[in-house]
Amino acid sequence: MPRIAFFDVDNTLTRGSTLYFLGKGMYERGFFTKRDIGAWVLANIRFRMTGTEKSEVIARFQKSATDFIAGHKVDEIRKIGEEIYTEFVSPSLWEGTMAIAQRHLNAGDEVWLVTASPQDFAELIAEKLGFTGALGTQAETKDGKYTGNLIGPLLHGKEKASAIIKLTNERKINIKECFAYSDSHNDLPLLNTVGHPNAINPDAKLRIISFSSGWPVHDFRRLRWVNRYIGPSVSRIAGFWAYLTARKK
Hints:
Layout: E1 4-7, H1 18-28, H2 34-50, H3 55-67, H4 74-89, H5 95-106, E2 110-118, H6 119-129, E3 133-137, E4 139-142, E5 145-150, H7 158-171, E6 179-182, H8 188-193, E7 196-200, H9 204-213, E8 217-218, H10 220-248
Parallel strand pairs: 1-2, 1-6, 2-3, 6-7, 7-8
Antiparallel strand pairs: 4-5
Helix pairs in contact: 1-2, 1-4, 2-3, 4-6
């Protein structure tokens, strides 16, 4: 019986927001003005910082998340998405998370991304990484262009749980044998739905819940800090010791 490992993307798989990367890349290519991206970034920050499920906050972010691709050709956004993946997404990948995903693949598990970012961009990332597939927010298209509307709700919170339940039911996979990985307490519905929830780079609330629930916690930020600050110090000490040793000879 196959199993699925579901991975949130922003701050779980990547350092930062993939939707922000997409917006920044499009701005740098002249798709919209600084004022446009400023309004979108503000909506993005408000959405991620509130930590709430308020419908008006989600609706505001939902609109901002689709406005910036409205009117553009699907093929055009795909081509730009590939460039943005190479420029922003690939360098931002957490090596530790990638190692976990690879272990699942090596074990014969499927690996799916689950994100509020656009489905097309999420699928592109999954394709580049050799993952099985992706579940994302679905943007409506008409005549080969994005309309700026969504098909269904933003894939966030409880919607992520609903999406993976639908997928596993369709595939006749026991969801209690599946895994999920996230950094945010907003993904508790996702984590509580599977049999093997995991926290990666967790926020404060998710860290507390994970420890109290006995969930595995993987924090690659700490390792990065050690490598950045402790690592160079150790190298300098080792170098100084070698210098002193050489002088004694």
